[in-house]
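ugh ok fine here u go
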Amino acid sequence: MNKPEREAEFRVTRMEALIASYGDDSSSSSDGDVSPPTSPSSLHNSNSEESQAKSEPVRLPPPPLALLNSPNPLDYMEIGQGSRVRNFPHIEGNYALHIFIPVYIPPTTMKNLALFLKRIVKVVPDLHVVDVDIPLSNLCKDDQKLEQVALGREFHISLGRTVPVRVHQIDSILTMLRQKFSSPKQYWIDFSKWEVFVNDEQTRSFLAMEVVAGGLAEVTRQIQSVNEIYRFHNLPEFYKDPRPHISLLWASGNVSDLLKRRVTEVLSAGTMSQSKRIFTCKFKGIKCRIGHKQYKICNGKP
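structure:
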């Protein structure tokens, strides 16, 4: 066999190896799925296939650059939720974990709260609505939008820090959460105080409604239970002295002193007293968000 024939045969052999390794188009239709697996078995199978591919004698060319720009499983904290700033770096294979009590503001309370929001934005014009990141001043132009967007959605009482978890920890965390909260006690949650919180990075100030009486003991016990699960998985625990609350608005930087003064002024001039209960709701269960997926841990008993 002469040299040109040997080169042609080598090219054919290499092409066949590439086709066999990559497979046809139908085998790669799910490559873009970045949702966390629900069990370690799927990860094990993936690792086995990867190991088998690495053992092939033929070296494959590098993948297209577009494949390297896969969606970040932690980006939900930055897309459409700019008020939530991730305080840990992205590492491939990590997913953001957030455990919380969902809270809905009663329709009977929305009118008074909407009036308060209109007054506070006049003296603090740079306020934004938490999570949706729309300037409050824009929503105040339409009463219906103000109530629907700023007040008519799901709020969260955090039971633990938002932390990164590895894929192999997900099933264990979910199992332990459901065991801990298999029979939750029904109770009422009173939001009785306007408060201003600042994040650890001093980049955001949050206007929030705090739980200081009714429901405080129950929520605190639930935070302690979540802390036990965090410790078991070597995750950072919640703040030493937790202050359960739901955040309503945010402003850039540490403007807590200014915001507190303005809130006091608005409350003094209006009909909503600082000492008056803002609203009350029933405990309706616990949810857990991991990456883009949300899991129901338990329901509040009727």
